[in-house]
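Lab notebook, design round three. We kept the backbone fixed and only want residue identities now. Task for the bench partner: fill in a sequence for the structure below.
Input structure tokens:
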């Protein structure tokens, strides 16, 4: 609104000072917006090289963090299973009561000292042979069957031998000449 017209409207009483000030500020804001040119940047569809590097770095960081968390979870599970095995071990027999119990694990024949009572528990399925670690070189010990089941639930890859299950699962091959000759579970070698 021009000054002359403003003065005329004020004299006639159609507008007051507040309305004049408001009109002036709106006019000023409109001019200010018109003067500012909008930045003409690249279209949003194509990321810049810096944005692309930043996105790749974020993806690498996310993957590394997931791997680190997975390693920590595996390490915690292994420690938990070691503790489970070591807290539920049967005592290792020594002296005249000890006899070697042979079993197959990982394609190798291994042996473990047992008493006749422990041998019966193994044959009945009330005991199992568990590895002390993921590595078979760490050794094997006898544990109760319930402990072996809990280990298997948490980690199916843990070295675990349950002779009663293996005897029930094993069927002789069709061309086995010794199929009629069943080897008893409590056979001592």
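Proposed sequence:
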């Amino acid at each position: 609104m021009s000054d002359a017209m403003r003065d005329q409207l004020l004299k006639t009483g159609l507008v007051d000072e507040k309305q004049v000030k408001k009109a002036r500020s709106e006019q000023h804001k409109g001019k200010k917006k018109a003067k500012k040119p909008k930045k003409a940047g690249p279209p949003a569809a194509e990321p810049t090289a810096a944005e692309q590097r930043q996105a790749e770095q974020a993806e690498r960081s996310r993957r590394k963090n997931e791997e680190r968390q997975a390693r920590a979870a595996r390490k915690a599970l292994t420690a938990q299973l070691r503790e489970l095995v070591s807290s539920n071990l049967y005592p290792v027999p020594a002296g005249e009561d000890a006899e070697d119990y042979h079993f197959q694990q990982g394609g190798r024949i291994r042996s473990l000292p047992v008493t006749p009572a422990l041998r019966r528990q193994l044959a009945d399925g009330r005991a199992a042979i568990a590895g002390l670690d993921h590595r078979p070189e760490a050794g094997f010990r006898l544990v109760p069957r319930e402990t072996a089941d809990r280990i298997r639930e948490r980690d199916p890859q843990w070295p675990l031998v349950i002779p009663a299950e293996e005897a029930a699962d094993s069927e002789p091959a069709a061309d086995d000449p010794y199929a009629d000759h069943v080897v008893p579970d409590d056979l001592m070698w």
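Keep this in mind before ordering anything: The beta strands are 99-105, 108-114, 127-131, 140-144, 160-161.
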